[in-house]
Amino acid sequence: MSDTHILIERPAERPGVLVLRFNRPDKKNAITRGMYQTLTDAIRAANGDPDIRAIAFLGSPGAFSAGNDMADFMAFAMGGSLGREVLDFLDALSNAEKPLVSGVDGLAIGIGTTIHLHCDMTFATPRSLFRTPFVDLALVPEAASSLLGPLVMGHQRAFAMFAAGEGFSAEDARDAGLIWQVVPEEELEEKVLAAAAGLAAKPPQALRIARDLIRKGRPDVAGRIAEEAAHFSAQLKSAEAMAAFQKFMARKG
């Protein structure tokens, strides 16, 4: 399955790099079911393609991603589950075999933030904002962020982001260990693609082993994703979630 809101690029000048670019700027790159499926298919195909040695995620000027598309999200809510496409994407993301590099300019909300916990190097511009308003919607963290967040940031910062819903600036995110570098807006794409190309040019077996060793320090990511999804699904059916959604939609209207 493909989706025009995800551009899949293999730049000739960046051999070995696969670029997955959010391309729905009118909706601040809010992610639909089709977009999730396209991302999943691309990551899984890259696992088996020896010519792809690194994957880069990019958004649009002013928005990496505003999180889940609200129409799709309300459909999830009515169905009482996180959605197969979302869970398939989280599985593909957490099990990606190639190094993941990402670049953020502007909004990074919900999954637009938690995706970077699975990336190996993330760059962001000074105007970026990382925020996960899960609890504000009477929901819970996802993408194993309740596990990876404290490991990366420590308890206090992770609680501030994933429970209190505090927004993090690019500098906050760098200091917390969520991202690697803060770079000027006009340099973001070049920095991301250069980093991905640099990884793609390294001896692939040595890089794979090094990455696997570094990531093996993490506890059971798949188990935490499943645990979060169960709580998420239960909360979707709750009265407090319905009230939070109604309040949110009224504010948007």
TrEMBL record:
This is Enoyl-CoA hydratase/carnithine racemase. The keyword Thylakoid does not apply. It is found in: Peroxisome. PANTHER family: ENOYL-COA DELTA ISOMERASE 2, PTHR43684. GO terms for molecular function: delta(3)-delta(2)-enoyl-CoA isomerase activity. The lineage of its organism: Bacteria, Pseudomonadati, Pseudomonadota, Alphaproteobacteria, Hyphomicrobiales. Pfam families: ECH_1. Keywords: Isomerase, Peroxisome. SUPFAM superfamilies: ClpP/crotonase. Its main location: other.
